Amino acid sequence: MATKDITTKKPAAKAAASPKASPTASTGAAASNGQSVPSVQPVLNQQFNAPAPLQKYGTVSQRLPIGLDEKTRQESVNNLNQMLADTITLRDLYKKHHWQVVGPTFYQLHLLYDKHYEEQSVLVDTIAERIQILGGVAVAMAHDVAELASIPRPPRDREEAPIQVSRLLEAHQIILKNCHDFAKQADDSGDDGTNDLLVSEVLRANEMQVWFISEHVVDTPLARAE
Ligand SMILES: [Fe+2]
User: Fold this and answer.
1) Is residue 157 situated within a structural domain?
2) Which of 46, 51, 138, 176 could form a Cys-Cys staple with 128, CB 3.0–4.6 A?
3) Ligand 1 centre from 98 Cα, in Å?
4) Which superkingdom, per the lineage (predicted)?
5) How many domains, in total, are found in the chain?
6) pLDDT of 45-84, one tens digit each?
C-alpha cells in the first residue's frame, strides 16, 4: 500500500493536526489478526495551526521567585535585549572578518578574530539566559537582531584589515557605552544580578578585546626601527 505523504501538506483544520481530535493518529491501523497497532507517525505541521504564543516578545512574566518587581525586570529585559542584539552582531562581525581577512597579519588576526568570536558567543548565551531568568523573551533570530541592533551594518564585501579593526572597535565602543548605562540603571533599580553580569562579564570581556584589537592598528615599524 502506498504511504500517504503528509509531510508537505498543510492540515485543513486544527483538528486534523491534533492527536486528541484525531484518534486514528494514535491508534494506528488494524493488524492482520484484527488487533490495533500503535502508530509511530509524528504529528507534523503543527506550526500552521499554532495556538497563541506562550509569551509575547517584549513582555515579562513573574514565573521565578527572584525578589525583583515587574518594573525592574521589564527595564532590565529591555536593556539586555539591546545588549544581546548588539553582542550577536559583534560576534558575527568577528566571524565575517575571521573568514575574509588577508595580508601580512592574516595568521594573527584570523586566530584572534575567532577567539573573540568564541568569547562573544559565551556572552550571547549568558545575556539571553539572564533575560529568561528575569521573565522576558530573548531576541534570537537574525532578522529580529538586525532590526534591534545599534551597531552599523557592514558591507558584504571583503575589506582591508585596518578597516576591519576599525569596525570592530566602533562596535565594542557602542556596547561598552551601553554597558555603563545599563549597569548603572540595574544598580539603581536593585537588579544586582544584571549589574554584575554587565560589569563582571560583558564590560570586562569587551575592554580586554578592545586592547587586543587596538594594538594591531598602532603604526610601528615592522622590521627596522625608524
Ligand atoms: Fe574558522
Assistant:
1) yes
2) 138
3) 7
4) Bacteria
5) 2
6) 999 999 999 999 999 998 899 999 999 999 999 999 999 9
